[in-house]
Amino acid sequence: MELNSIKDAFDRVTKKQKLSSSKSQEVIEQIRQEIEQAFLRLQSEQDSASPSAHKLILNELKTKLKEIAPLSHLEGTQKELNVALSKYPKLLEKSFNPDISKAYRNIDFDIHTVNQIIASHFYREGQFDIGDCFINESQELEAAASKSPFLEMFQILEAMKCRNLEPALGWAASNHDQLNQNGSDIELKLHRLQFVEILQNRGRDEALKYARAFLAPFATKHMAVFQKLMACLLWAGRLDSSPYAELLSSIHWDKLSVELAQQFCNLMGQSYESPLSVTIAAGVQGLPTLLKLMNVMTGKKQEWQTMKQLPVPVDLDREFQFHSVFVCPVSRDQVSEENPPMLLTCGHVLCKQSITKLSKNNSTRRFKCPYCPAEVEAGQCAQLHF
Amino acid sequence: MSEWNSIRLKTILVDYMLRMSYYDTAVKLAETSNIEDLVDTDVFLEAKKAIDALKKNEVCPALAWCAENKSRLKKSKILFDEKHWDFLADHFKREFCRVYGMTLEPLLNIYLQAGLSALKAPFCYEDACTKEDPLSQEAFRKLAQPLPYSKQHHSKLVCYITKELMDTENPPLVLPNGYVYSTKDMAKQNNRITTCPRTGHVCDYTKVVKAYTSHRNKVHPDLHTSVQDACNFCNPRPLLANWGRFESALTLEDSQWIRAHL
User: What are the GO MF terms of this UniProt record (chain A) (predicted)?
Assistant: First the structure.
């Protein structure tokens, strides 16, 4: 945001205001002095008071006041102040109050869908009271379905904050197969944390018992981790001064909480970040471009309402790039299923249609790659999957 | 998500609640998030009073508000001529929003629509779409349905596995089956045998080839001829003479390759 230009405009107003005020004071002071002088002269001549002398003094005063010309002096500075003063709110309005609804396509969002998204956003952020209140007020009773899984997740995470891993371990055990299938080793990580906790607080025997019961099944697949944990047994009671002291770091708890939330959402078929947060953040980033587009398109309102693809790219940060996009460097087309990206034998990539054109639709005809001296055949180009 | 993003989203949500007349939620959310100063609860309650009255065919609160804001109401004369109460309520709402510099639509709808337009791509509708993409969710797809697709002018390749950007620093590598993964991911596998996670295809790492997808530096046409001459006639002189001009157009790797081969 251009706060500097606003500050400049504000400074201009204050400067003009000061100027106008000091000028006024100066003029008033001048007038005051003239009157005072005239007054003194009148007093001194009081004794030999002749009306004509008095008249002369007053006439002189009148001429002097006319010479000072207070009105014309004050008018100028006042005018400048007014100009600056009227410009300032205009600039404010322009900077802070652009009508962002210009970029709004006049279609009604289905209120129920929006409300469901919002309810589930509250629940996934752990704002259960507000979620309940919202569902009551909006009467979106079916949206409450998203509450219980998130409630379970937050109970697990809350317990972890108090260094209680039982709910987390219970969840991991009951989702053992699915977690395995996703290639997640979170169950082992939870057991490792629990093992260290027990070793610290309840001693070697308990820890060994725990390892036999819960860590042993992971031993063959994760030998290195297992060996390290067994070595910890030797340092029972003084783990903090052992080579394994880093296992005690609270970072492991924080990291594991995040990973658990990720896996939990994943098993629910949900994203880790709230999709509402992500979309709104993308909207905030994209809106200036869309507003600019609308300014260019004024008068073509109809087009905006019906267009199938935005005519300009809306650049978003890396975090919003969920998919690979390949734009053919020759045709500038975005590749699609019908027009896939193809790898030339020289390593450059073009879209299929460009290759067809360059080879004049002949799969054995050699053509020069537009990006290097290599000659290639369309028939040898291979489709890519990003 | 940064803290500012989260506060902004909360103010947008409070705005939505107020406009939809979910006042309890609005107040509660503003209170628990400590953003009462950032939202216009009082203003909306004032509007609600007037609009509710208009719907009951009472004009007093609306007229009182009009009198209060006379100087800022330019076109409000028609307010008194209208016969239809619903239209009147609607008109009042419009004028009210205008006077306070507010959009007529909830902010949520405006940002949501902009975000969906910016994110909407054909890939969002594929089965393999990542769950992190809001448009993988049915509700978001439904809202995005009447909106245009986004447009891209430049390739942006994201590794299927690491989700990292594939560019000159992390170039894309192609398995013999045509599936592409990033160099960083391939380096992680530290194995001569590579398995494609999407097809199960197994291949030797030596069969993997690099794909050149960034054409940001369009190579000077003279370079082609010079390289060709250098290769055909074993005469590197024209190439080396113009080296300064060419080198900036080449990737570091390519320039090293050419130097090594001459």
Answer: ubiquitin protein ligase activity; zinc ion binding
- For residue A108, the 8-state DSSP code is P
* Domain of A252, in residue numbers: 163-268
Distance CA(A326)–CA(A350), nearest Å, equals 9
Nearest CB to B110; choose among A101, A282, A347: A101
A257 and A341 part of one domain: no
Euclidean distance between CA atoms A119 and A25, whole angstroms: 63
Å between A257 CA and nearest CA of chain B: 16
Pick B112's closest partner by Cβ from A116, A280, A373: A280
Q: What is the mean pLDDT of residues B17-21?
A: 91
ipTM score above 0.85: no
Q: Do B178 and A383 touch (CB under 8 A)?
A: yes
Residues A87 and A181 both lie in one domain: no
- A-chain CB neighbours of B210 within 8 Å are 347
CB contact under 8 A, A276 and B172: no
Taking only Cα atoms into account, the Rg of chain A, rounded to an integer number of angstroms, comes to 39
**Final residue belonging to a domain, choices A60, A91, A122:** A91
- Complete edge-to-edge strand list for the sheet that includes strand B209-210: B180-182, B172-174, B209-210
The domain that holds A372 is classified in CATH as: 3.30.40.10
Average pLDDT, chain B: 80
Chain A residues with CB under 8 Å of B156 CB are 321, 324-325
Which amino acid appears at position A278 of this protein?
A: V
Alpha carbons A196 and A188: distance in angstroms, whole number = 12
Is the pLDDT reported for residue A18 higher than 50? yes
Of the residues A268, A285, A301, the one at which a domain ends: A268
What is the CATH topology of the domain spanning B157-210?
Herpes Virus-1 (3.30.40)
Q: Domain locations in chain B?
A: 108-144, 157-210, 221-261
- Model's pTM, two decimal places? 0.74
Tell me the per-residue pLDDT of B148-185, one tens digit each, with 9 for 90 and over.
999 888 888 988 888 888 888 888 999 989 999 888 77
For chain A, give the mean pLDDT. 88
- B148 and A130 within 8 Å at the Cβ level: the answer is no
